[in-house]
Each structure stands twice: as structure tokens, then as C-alpha cells.
């Protein structure tokens, strides 16, 4: 997960679970739009802990369209 400085509490775009991307495992599906760990894995994501990267990103098709940033 590469969230840089995004430490705000947000919701998983798929299930609505509360997550803090800078602290919780999550996948950034669009700018400031995240999938929680469980939804990312359910959508086929494969994470490599050793390299700290997604070797297979989750399928993000059919996710709600994020609102434009203000």
C-alpha cells in the first residue's frame, strides 16, 4: 500500500468499513479511494509482505465512482 500522507479516516469503497489507509492495510483503487484489506483480497488481490507490494492488484471493476476532490 502506498498511501503516502493520507491519514484521514475513510471508508472502504466496497463494503463501507472504516479504515485509516496510513495505518490499516488497504488498496488505493483511485486517488483517495480505498478498498479495505478483506475486500481487496476477495477481489483477487495478492500482496507480497516481503516486497511490501501488490503482486496482483485487486479487480476494481464495478466499484462506485469516487467523488471528485474539492
Secondary-structure topology with pairs:
Elements: E1 10-11, E2 18-19, E3 26-30, E4 33-36, H1 37-42, E5 46-48, E6 53-56
Antiparallel strand pairs: 1-2, 3-4, 5-6
Report on this model:
By secondary structure, the chain is mainly beta. The chain contains 1 helix and 6 strands. The strands form 3 sheets. The protein has a two-stranded antiparallel sheet. A two-stranded antiparallel sheet has the order 3-4. A two-stranded antiparallel ribbon has the order 5-6. The longest helix is centred in the middle third of the chain and has 6 residues, at 37-42. It is globular.
User: In percent, how helical is the residue content?
Assistant: under 10%
What share of residues are in beta strands? 25-35%
Order of helices and strands: EEEEHEE
The structural class is: mainly beta
End-to-end gap: 24 Å
pLDDT below 50 for ≥5 consecutive residues: which ranges?
none
Average of per-residue pLDDT values: 86
Number of helices: 1
Amino acid at each position: 500500500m502506498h498511501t503516502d500522507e493520507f491519514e484521514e479516516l475513510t471508508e472502504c469503497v466496497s463494503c463501507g468499513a472504516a479504515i485509516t489507509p496510513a495505518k490499516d492495510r488497504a488498496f488505493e483503487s483511485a486517488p483517495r479511494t480505498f478498498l479495505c484489506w478483506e475486500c481487496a483480497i476477495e477481489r483477487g488481490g495478492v500482496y507480497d509482505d516481503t516486497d511490501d507490494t501488490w503482486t496482483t492488484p485487486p479487480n476494481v471493476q464495478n466499484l462506485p465512482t469516487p467523488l471528485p476532490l474539492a
